[in-house]
Design brief:
single chain, three-stranded antiparallel beta sheet, 14 helices, elongated
Length: 400
């Protein structure tokens, strides 16, 4: 009778999660089968050999519970396979059982595997990342004509053809790289779980970050935009104000603006955590910010700005509002005869670019967010005294 036990191997690197694997024993032969899942030591109950979310921080509880469910299902599959062979009188070894289990998982379609990852990300609270996986999968399936492929079918030739298709579709290099990096991360997860062999299918395709054209407007444009009389066009007026609020708050992203609550404003300081990075930021509250909040006062919602207007489907409300605002900002761009199409991202880029033009030190703001990755910029900002950044913001706002 074969036995299958879940085991945990702690990482040799302190602070890193350890690996979960199955120990398969049959006829006194012991083999290991990688699960591809990782948990921290505190999330492993050695006394009963199971994953537990009891000691997990709140942000990991759903993820750990999902991992526990997945490994339980895989253990059941292994045991069922062994039971079927025993009932049929088939002689097998622990190696046979491990190899057959991997092969059955390998037959899983790439689409199903990637959708599974997207669900895990969503269940763990990483909604935005989950959406990027779903978007990438839709693009890849458009390329294949909605034809699914097996994990083993992903090879260098297929990825090169997909890259060429993306370029022919008119996508810029950074978008091509974005899709490729998501697919590569998915493939590497499959390799880690032993579902396919590492054949380096992304060798030769573009996965870098290309420098983009400058997407910033000068302070004169911000002044002109602020002075526009849009009282007869409420949606344009609202979109303009959201752009200005982002600029006033050092280029705050729209998603962070959407989820601001009134209790984020404390004693003249706006305190919030970036949803993208978790970094905690402090912004000195200025009169121009208060004027916008007063203009759209909606105390019943609990939010600072009227982007999310009701409880439930907050994410959908934010995304719909972002689409609307960016659409109306392009209308404003045309009205002003600007060569740059305005978006909420332009507000963020413009603050950084103007800060640089004011000779604010690179340690305060790095080349208008011109680093190859945003994480580099965050390293600079995280090390500063908040008062230095606030003084930089005051200097910029005086020119409006």
């Amino acid at each position: 009778m074969a036995t299958v036990n879940l085991k945990f191997k702690a990482s040799s690197v302190e602070g890193k999660p350890g690996s979960l694997y199955f120990q398969v024993i049959h006829r006194r032969t012991v083999r290991q089968v990688c699960t591809g899942y990782h948990v921290y030591p505190a999330e492993w109950d050695a006394s009963c050999g199971r994953v537990t979310a009891v000691a997990s921080p709140p942000e990991r509880v759903d993820l750990v519970r999902a991992v526990r469910e997945h490994v339980q299902q895989d253990r059941w599959r292994l045991l069922r396979l062994a039971s079927e062979w025993e009932e049929l009188g088939i002689s097998f070894t622990a190696d046979d059982l491990a190899a057959s289990f991997r092969e059955k998982l390998r037959q899983q379609s790439f689409k199903d595997f990637m959708l599974g990852i997207a669900r895990q990300l969503r269940d763990s609270g990483q909604v935005r990342t989950s959406e990027t996986y779903a978007t990438t999968l839709k693009s890849f399936l458009r390329f294949t004509g909605d034809r699914d492929v097996r994990l083993d079918d992903l090879d260098r030739d297929l990825m090169l053809r997909y890259e060429a298709w993306l370029k022919r579709s008119g996508l810029v290099l950074n978008t091509v790289s974005f899709y490729m990096r998501i697919l590569r991360a998915t493939y590497n997860r499959a390799v880690e779980r032993g579902l396919t062999e590492q054949r380096s299918p992304f060798r030769g395709v573009y996965t870098g970050v290309a420098r983009t054209l400058k997407r910033a407007v000068p302070i004169q444009v911000i002044r002109r935009m602020k002075a526009l009389d849009l009282s007869d066009a409420p949606l344009l007026d609202f979109s303009r104000d959201m752009f200005l609020f982002s600029f006033y708050t050092r280029g705050m992203s729209f998603v962070d603006m959407a989820y601001l609550r009134r209790n984020n404003l404390l004693a003249g300081v706006l305190v919030y955590c970036r949803r993208k990075t978790g970094q905690r930021l402090f912004v000195k509250w200025e009169r121009c910010m208060q004027e916008i909040v007063d203009k759209y006062d909606a105390p019943a919602t609990g939010y600072l700005l009227p982007i999310i207007r009701r409880s439930g489907d907050e994410r959908a409300q934010y995304r719909n509002a972002l689409h609307l605002v960016n659409c109306k900002l392009k209308t404003i761009s045309a009205m002003m005869g600007l060569p740059v199409g305005l978006t909420m991202y332009v507000a963020r880029h413009s603050w950084a670019s103007i800060a640089r033009s004011k000779r604010i030190p690179i340690s305060v703001i790095s080349e208008g967010m011109g680093h190859d990755s945003e994480s580099t910029t965050q390293i600079y900002l995280a090390s500063l005294d908040h008062s230095v950044v606030d003084r930089a913001n005051e200097l910029i706002l005086r020119n409006i």
